[in-house]
């Protein structure tokens, strides 16, 4: 931590900061510049971080030197985390496609989609039984019946599946069916839910909050990790900006940044980011080229009857076509498909 | 709903949209312009809104005419909602001050603060027993022990209190102690939590998500209202923008906008918005002048030892001084204090 | 400047940074922490700032301790700048109202408005002859004919006026008529224009870029100041955020922040910020309560025929009514009207 | 234009809107819904757009059906614009690399860089003689001497060059040297400068304002086009968001959106977007994969001595390596290199 004193800080103010650092067993390096005194704090970073330095008299600001997350950082584990999930691999130089309907609407809709995405090369199925909806009047998902259909599709098509969990009380239920638990963008900072999935024996796909910084997103992963669950996949799905021409702004830059800061694999969701069908293929190709470990794409046999997000769903044929260029680009950037 | 067809839409595309509107019992008004055909949809707005118009062939975009929320709108209830909470009034032309520590840290800290804010004119006490923290390594609150201290302070100082609830499983517990349940900014779109507090007999203070639009915030209130709980207070507490000079950007404009769209009272939290002590008094005065029904201010007897957000807490003496100018401004804009 | 080395920085990397600091006559304070080495740079801040520290091997980031602006800071001049403009005072504890039409459209429109705002208590007239418009097909202003009308209105009603200048080639022309030159929000970072108005003997009203940080805005003022023109008024007029319910988000927090960082007076433009008539009065009251030195309000005798921004213009009668509460609030916060 | 009346609009309000539409020769289609009356306006879109509908009594909002730009839209010209510039091609299925130093600092620095980027496959040279700098104390460029060096480098290495123009008074000068004029991100809404370059016989590279919507950016292109200059290249270079881990957030989604809305070629600047050297190669690969027509990359022989933006410049060897994967990806997405 670097503590910058303000111009009018007194010697007593500076001494109070130094004394407080000493009281927690830390060292203080004081540099007196022409305009400001700067105090470098060295010692136990958690102990230093907890104190309210900016509330002390004469302190202008406190600048952390270290990131607040630890276990999910590359400082802690330099080599990539690689997940093995019922035959599918995520991370470590393999490229993986996750695909399926946004929401499970019926057995037929799910099975037609699962069969098609499997044929096109997807190795993980997506499909939700619980949907968080902005309006209370929108379709909220089929609940456990949807999970049962997903489990049946898994057996039929030999595809592990990922499904969202919304409520800490449902974590056990969803975990008893799904192969991967998904934390949605609105729940990235729902710390009770993060703690709960951190205690499950299933991998977690952690969507970035659409208004979360990368640092906050990695902090959320840290919540899961420190409970004992180290199988975490980071999912970039677009952030909220002033631009309204697309539903969200895909923060493609986040992919190399997270892969630099952390050992966890990174997946991109081009469907929820763009929000429009014609953007899905270009965004997917960009995600592969930049080095994402995986993509997750909404596919629906009849998008114009979809109960959720039909405007962004690819037809099975469109997905199959997309997968061809995806494989070619993955090869160029050195990923196994 | 207004459905704008794209330039290359065919007659069959237009007919398909019209037929679909008819199939749900709605009317279609077709206007053919020089460049675009526009279809006005008239009928049951929920039925129309549910269909994926933008997934249909030839549709460029669908523009809703009506807001998605209903019960919380002024269209539904023109007169102000006024809440009576153990002697305190919120809304309807009364100005109310809520104050207290960000987090309950000890009985002594709480009682010293409660006594001071009561003396200065606050009529509701704040204090949290459960804290959502970005880092898993930060102080997370005293839990039920904190609620017990708050209940004791209520009796001692005759001050109803508001406390945050984070987890749907804790709603009953917090509701058994607190006079007002608070939904924090990170949980504004936690729909399972909203549904749960919507079933309680206690008023809810609903903080705006720091990245939520006003429309999304009112949708969140609708979730609570439609479960049967009509006692809702909207809390503006700053939004995330590109500006980093303050912790958040107080969206002061949201106050008159929400009061125009909705009958619910609006409270402003200047402490969490600015994030720095010297900004609290100016922001509070602006909130009163613009017509907020209430303010909520962090007060701490010794901010430089605070375990949460010490940098933004006022000293009791600073709060008392602020309340004097607050009363004067409230008088100018026609509010009872 | 504080230079944080990354985890894998070598001794040679650290030495290279230290040597470079020495080469420009600066001191280097090296602190070796458990995870990172941090180097404090002390010396001529401009010389240090110019070097590309983050391009050097082993450097993680460079954190400036000082703000980049100098002359406009309170560090440089602790007392408020106060401007005297043909009988009007801006800054130093006086509250000033600037009002008039967004654009000059005709002599009659201008004179009707000027007469009304004078009667209501405005002491500076606004009105533009050159308008920057997003679309090339919109009305672009009357040019010099508009300036002549403004000059005539000044004499008739004894009101100094402010007018926008868009083009460095027009600075001399506008300056020969106007009492205050305005730099619009789109030109805040037009450094050639800033330099040009910095050479004029007229005060400059510098609007904040709607996407500029406070630091960038003060840097823009520094451009003007260092050319020799010290008469600068900072104008907050709303920033671009994700919220679309208002045209812009008024960053009311910027008022106390700028007044803390700088000695320059701060004016708020509630009209361009909110973009809707019903928001103007509440936003104006908030601006006065938070301590702005001045406000600038669009007034038009017939807003529904206005060629620019009619939706946000007040009627003369609405402005007169607003001024009454403005005076009362200004009194509460200790300003002379 | 669709005009939505508010709930309390009277028959007279509706009639006034209809009459006004008739007065400009337009048709009005009135649809009375259960809660709102909606009026569709059909006729000359520019005439309709100019009127202040939202200032009229009873009007809730006016929703444009058409985009405000015309000539630069695909509605106006369905086929791609392709530029031929001294042997280089931009647009129409060819992929082009523009590279060179951010700023010209010396003849030696420029020539070393030009030689290297030419060898690696760049067909256009970049290099600036005028630099817009946030701080007035930073290096501002070599001026005409820099343009002379660029012209000499062009002849020596047979590379057309692009250079920024900042001031309308310098347009003739820069245009007399450069092959492509660049409008920087801070000047995208400098309409006097846009008008001036619109009168030159040289292509214009139009950077997106870092806070401009796609619609505003295309409006800026319309300013240039309507003056007679149809040779425009759109440059995406990152937008300002809440995320601070990268300098800007590259809006990669803008590439397919602009190519859908407009016939103009789109170039991506990965260097200024990311702001850090290690992000340049991944962002460039994403830009090529998503279908950008060109990229523009900062290259410097010794980044740690660069006077501008050294932290983001690639070494010549890094650029050469990047170009190999770029060519491979371009091939996959069907572009000629």
Q: Topology of this structure?
A:
The structure is a homotetramer of 337-residue chains.
Chain A: E1 2-5, H1 11-23, E2 27-32, E3 37-42, H2 45-50, E4 59-63, E5 83-85, E6 88-90, E7 96-100, H3 107-120, E8 124-126, H4 144-157, E9 161-164, H5 171-177, E10 180-183, H6 191-197, E11 204-207, H7 214-226, E12 232-236, H8 254-261, E13 266-268, H9 270-274, H10 277-290, E14 294-298, H11 316-332
Parallel strand pairs in A: 7-8, 7-14, 8-9, 9-10, 10-11, 11-12, 12-13, 13-14
Antiparallel strand pairs in A: 1-3, 1-4, 2-3, 5-6
Structure summary, number of beta strands of chain A? 14
* Range of helix content of chain A: 25-40%
Q: How are the strands of the largest sheet of chain A arranged?
A: 7-8-9-10-11-12-13-14
Mean pLDDT of chain A: 94
Helical segment count of chain A = 11
Q: Mind summarizing the main beta sheet of chain A?
A: 8 strands, parallel, barrel
Derived from helix and strand composition plus strand pairing, the structural class of chain A reads alpha/beta
Compute the gyration radius of chain A: what is it? 23 Å
Unreliable stretches of chain A, pLDDT < 50, 5 or more residues? none
User: What is the string of helix and strand elements of chain A?
Assistant: EHEEHEEEEHEHEHEHEHEHEHHEH
**Distance between termini of chain A?**
43 Å
């Amino acid at each position: 931590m670097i503590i910058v004193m303000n111009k009018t800080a007194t010697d007593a103010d500076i001494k109070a900061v130094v004394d407080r650092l000493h009281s927690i067993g830390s060292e203080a390096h004081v540099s007196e510049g022409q305009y400001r005194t700067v105090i470098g704090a060295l010692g136990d970073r958690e102990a230093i971080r907890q104190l309210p330095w900016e509330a002390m008299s004469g302190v202008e600001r406190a600048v952390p030197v270290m990131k607040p997350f630890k276990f999910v950082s590359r400082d802690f584990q330099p080599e990539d985390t690689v997940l093995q999930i019922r035959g599918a691999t995520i991370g470590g130089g393999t490229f993986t496609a996750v695909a399926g309907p946004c929401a499970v609407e019926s057995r037929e809709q799910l099975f037609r989609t699962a069969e098609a995405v499997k044929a096109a090369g997807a190795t993980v199925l997506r499909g939700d039984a619980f949907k968080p909806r902005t309006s209370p009047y929108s379709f909220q998902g089929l609940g456990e019946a949807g999970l049962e259909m997903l489990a049946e599709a898994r057996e039929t098509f030999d595809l592990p599946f990922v499904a969202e969990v919304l409520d800490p009380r449902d974590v056990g239920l969803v975990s008893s069916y799904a192969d991967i638990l998904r934390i949605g963008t609105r729940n990235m900072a729902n710390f009770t839910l993060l703690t709960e999935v951190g205690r499950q024996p299933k991998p977690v796909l952690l969507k970035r909050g659409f208004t979360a910084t990368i640092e906050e997103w990695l902090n959320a992963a840290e919540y899961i990790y420190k409970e004992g669950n180290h199988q975490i996949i980071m999912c970039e799905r677009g952030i909220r900006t002033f631009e309204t021409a697309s539903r969200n702004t895909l923060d493609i830059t986040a992919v190399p940044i997270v892969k630099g800061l952390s050992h966890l694999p990174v997946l991109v969701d081009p469907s929820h980011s763009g929000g429009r069908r014609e953007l899905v293929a270009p965004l997917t190709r960009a995600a592969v080229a930049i080095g994402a470990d995986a993509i997750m794409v909404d596919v629906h046999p009849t998008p114009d009857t979809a109960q959720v997000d039909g405007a962004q769903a690819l037809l099975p044929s469109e997905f199959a076509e997309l997968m061809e260029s995806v494989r070619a680009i993955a090869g160029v950037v050195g990923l196994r498909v």
